[in-house]
Amino acid sequence: MKLIGSTTSPYVRKVRIVMAEKKLDYQFETEDVWAADASVGAANPLGKVPRLMIEGHETPLYDSRVIVEYLDTLSPVGKLLPPSGRERADVKTWEALADGVLDAAVLARLEATWPGRGEGERSQAWIGRQMGKVEAGLQAMSKALGEKPFCCGIHMSLADIATGCALGWLAFRFPQLTWREDHPNLARLSDKLAQRPSFKDTMPG
Question: Would you say the pTM of this structure is higher than 0.85?
């Protein structure tokens, strides 16, 4: 398998962590989706990473949620998704929440930094709206986590990987946010996950 993506993308990082936790072999090829000569659009019509190339298959897999769900079926090592039912839905809901926080934060950052817009063209109202979603998402995660050791109970799952990637990217791109002080239970979870080799080896930046 070959994974194509960016070392700073939290969605790519989620896939890389799943690969490491499940001890899967793969090649990692970096690609800048913003480069003028980027080929990502030819393989993913949405022009995004990650995408996973699988030997013997012409069409790649794309979207991190699709990729990690597929990867979890490849090995019984480190199962990250319950097989079915409400437990599986709970993990996937956590993943959707964490990815949704990232989606909003990415939109806010692009509005503030994308070189294709002049300073007078940037919308502070749009940035504020997206950052409001980030804060609401963090509050929801903190409330749902409570005092549990992991997002969905006593074992690490895909919910924790997605949440850890979201928190790690916020710390990387939005160091001014005070989520660690505002939500100490999320900070504890983030610190615990950061000790795992899979998280250490994929730190952005």
Answer: yes
